[in-house]
Amino acid sequence: MYSGYNYKVLKINLSNETTEIENITPTFVRKFLGGNGFGVKLLYDAIKPETDPLSEENSVVIAVGPANGTIMPGAAMTAFMTKSPLTGLFIDSYMGGHFATEIKNAGYDAILISGKLSKPKFLVIENDTVNFCDAQDLWGLETSKTQQKIKERLQNTEFQVACIGPAGENLVKYASIISDTRAAGRGGLGAVFGSKKLKAIAIRGDRDIYVAQPARVLEYVQKAFEEMKKHPGLGKNVPLFGSTGSIDGNNSLGILGTRNWQREVFDDAWMISGNNLLKRGLRVGHKSCASCMARSAIFFKANEGEYSGTISRGPEYETLYSYGSVLENNNPDSIIAADRLSDELGIDTMSTGLVIAWVMECFEKGILTSRDTDGLEVTFGKHEILLDMIKKIAYRDGIGDVLAEGTRIASRIIGKGSEDFAIHVKGLELAGHTARGLKGMGLGYAVATRGGSHQDIRPEVERSGKLDRQVIEGKSEHVMKSERMCTIGDSLILCRRHSEPYFGPYLSEKYVEVINILTGFDLDLEELNMIADRIYTLERMFNCREGITRKDDILPPRFMREPIPDGPSKGMYMKMEELNVMLDEFYSLRGWDLKTGIPTEAKMRTLGIN
């Protein structure tokens, strides 16, 4: 038996309120590693093709990996996976904090939730015991109040609670799951909880966690800590700024999504930058997740106008983009307040911001007016409407009922050409990294199993100039290697804020060493690449089973037709012929059929996937 695992999956059937334990084998853990790998395999086997994501036939997997619960830097992430109500495809979303440690301490590697409750309840998991508790008095509460009341009821603050807010209850298709102030934000996992009438999960355990080589793990962590302290990002900028420093960097390159991506330079970027947040004294503290050396959870407090006094953990870069530059909103206090409100209501800030940006462009083009929004003038730069729009979406109030479906569906409902500026890939609204100014990111978005996510492919290699961002040569291999790194990181599970700057942008012997000393595996880099390819190809097969083919590996029309109009990246866009060349190369490297984008039978056999 390998170390780092409990060899148990807790299976919970909500419909009949029963549980069972499924034992997993050493062969299984070596093939799928943990986290993301466990989740996609369990989910692929658990649900049938064409399952309605909001039906009781859908399932949710919550999984951890061999690093979780150890002192390995960044080993705090919990993987949540389901069939997304937003995209209709596989979705995995990751949450920091301390929830993963308690899953591991309770004795599980994964939790598989199926069925539907007859009335709102929350689960209490304590080691071998699972209780189904009434949550009717919690239904309608915001996330912080929900967590507080559950801990008061249990009379034990050691429980970690993951819950949904009103957005999840109202089946907003990009509702999130919140634990403490951390979010599994993308793809509508909160809506799936809501459809199952599952308000929350509280978990704790007291089982010991064992690693294969404790002395080497301790030595490795001590060395890593000393090296990370000297790292300019991890040791200095991240504890000070979190990810907010990326606003200035991306804007200076002319690749900051602005005005619903009509532009990629925000003239007022300095006002929402990390530097200005610090200069104005908005930073009021920070907090660490389990095993965190980066101390990157920065708290900000608004201190002006109607937002004064609001404290939020964040905003991170992605929220400064989605509630800031992409709306042409230069008011950082409003972004702090919107970030806090989104966490309380349990809604994804990225999708919400892009939906609102789409509405603003509809106003700009005369497709929508204030008559459609209960008198709100939803125009670019108008921060005053932001909180009202978030509430409308979370409660499906008025036009919020349409917007709660996501940009893809909302643009189809409204029509009038608005589909052309709906910024999503496969239904998932785009993250804050350009698809025009970074050609590798463009390909990465197009083929990502999640859709418009920056967590399948990372921007830093191109953004730093290590690869020429304007050329397509070498980008297919770069994307595949970046996907491998992300896949293994999400299976261990390690926070990318630690692993990417310390281990590098691709899989390396550092990953091999960490896995072997944690688990007792004797794998090499070749086998690790094979594990990554097995997991990612199974994600692709999940999506192909839902009808995804090459025709769907495409970018929003704006990025394929409209060159960046001004700034340092002026003139850049993704030509169809460029994307096709990269897709051919990418499919060849992956062993996927060139015409369909479906993994070949030969590749499946090589990877050991039935």
Automatic annotation (TrEMBL):
Pfam families: AFOR_C, AFOR_N. It comes from the Bacteria. One of its GO terms (molecular function) is metal ion binding. Its cofactor is [4Fe-4S] cluster; tungstopterin. Signal peptide: none annotated. It comes from Thermanaerosceptrum fracticalcis. Keywords: 4Fe-4S, Iron, Iron-sulfur, Metal-binding, Oxidoreductase. Belongs to the AOR/FOR family. Residues 5-207 form the Aldehyde ferredoxin oxidoreductase N-terminal domain. This is Aldehyde ferredoxin oxidoreductase.
